[in-house]
């Protein structure tokens, strides 16, 4: 994954020290102060993670997230906001953010969350051949090393959390993975939001698998968790 971190923040008092911290930590950091230039910068390529403030002067940060996700599912998005309430957190994740941090925040916590988003994105520029021989020519194939998902020969673009949920389900294919395990392993101990976040992520994942024509489906086991199963009938 590219090391460039794009900071989208209009408040100079927040942006300046955060940029210095990122550079001191070894990141190639850039900053823009508005949403539309941020979308254009991501479109240019080589941005690994975007640290995105929701309160921007031109367009809302959630709209930035929507526009970026329309053409790039791989860039990590860490949302910063002074807004309070569970609804904002769920909406932010629903439009494709990978994590959510409320202001005021500590630099140590932000850096920890940034590292977590980058780890979930996997190695930089995985070769297309990494999954060429993995599994049969048809069906759903999950490659944890390259962090890629294919249905037949078609790659399915997933956000980092969508991939992590699917990878856990694939590890235990046919068995139920509890909601508790998914929350503990995909969302770290710093997450204090609602488990509705998991439902939002699973909903997006199902839609993407359906759109790709996947023969496998994510089944809800009410009150327990989820199961990844082949839709083919039993012999």
From TrEMBL:
Biological process according to GO: regulation of DNA-templated transcription
Pfam family, one: Trans_reg_C
Keywords: DNA-binding, Phosphoprotein, Two-component regulatory system
Family annotation (SUPFAM superfamilies): C-terminal effector domain of the bipartite response regulators, CheY-like
GO terms under cellular component: cytosol; protein-DNA complex
GO molecular function: phosphorelay response regulator activity; transcription cis-regulatory region binding
Chain residues forming the annotated DNA-binding region: 129-230
Protein name: Response regulator transcription factor
Organism the protein comes from: Nocardioides iriomotensis
């Amino acid at each position: 994954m590219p090391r460039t971190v794009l900071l989208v923040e209009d408040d100079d008092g927040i942006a300046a020290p955060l940029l210095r911290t990122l550079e001191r930590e070894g990141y190639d950091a850039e900053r823009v102060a508005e949403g539309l230039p941020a979308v254009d910068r991501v479109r240019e390529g080589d941005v690994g993670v975007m640290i995105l403030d929701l309160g921007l002067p031109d367009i809302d940060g959630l709209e930035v997230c929507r526009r970026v996700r329309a053409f790039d599912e791989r860039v990590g998005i860490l949302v910063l906001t002074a807004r309070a309430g569970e609804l904002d957190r769920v909406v932010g994740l629903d439009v494709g953010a990978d994590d959510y941090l409320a202001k005021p925040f500590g630099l140590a916590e932000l850096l920890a969350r940034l590292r977590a988003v980058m780890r979930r994105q996997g190695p930089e520029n995985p070769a297309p051949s990494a999954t060429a021989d993995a599994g049969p020519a048809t069906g759903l194939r999950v490659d944890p090393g390259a962090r890629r998902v294919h249905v037949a020969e078609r790659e399915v673009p997933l956000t980092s959390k969508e991939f992590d949920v699917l990878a856990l389900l694939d590890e235990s294919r046919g068995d139920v993975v509890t909601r508790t395990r998914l929350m503990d392993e995909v969302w770290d101990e710093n997450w204090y939001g609602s488990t509705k976040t998991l439902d939002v992520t699973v909903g997006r994942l199902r839609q993407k698998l359906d759109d790709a024509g996947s023969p496998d489906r994510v089944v809800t086991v009410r009150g327990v968790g989820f199961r990844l199963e082949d839709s083919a009938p039993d012999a």
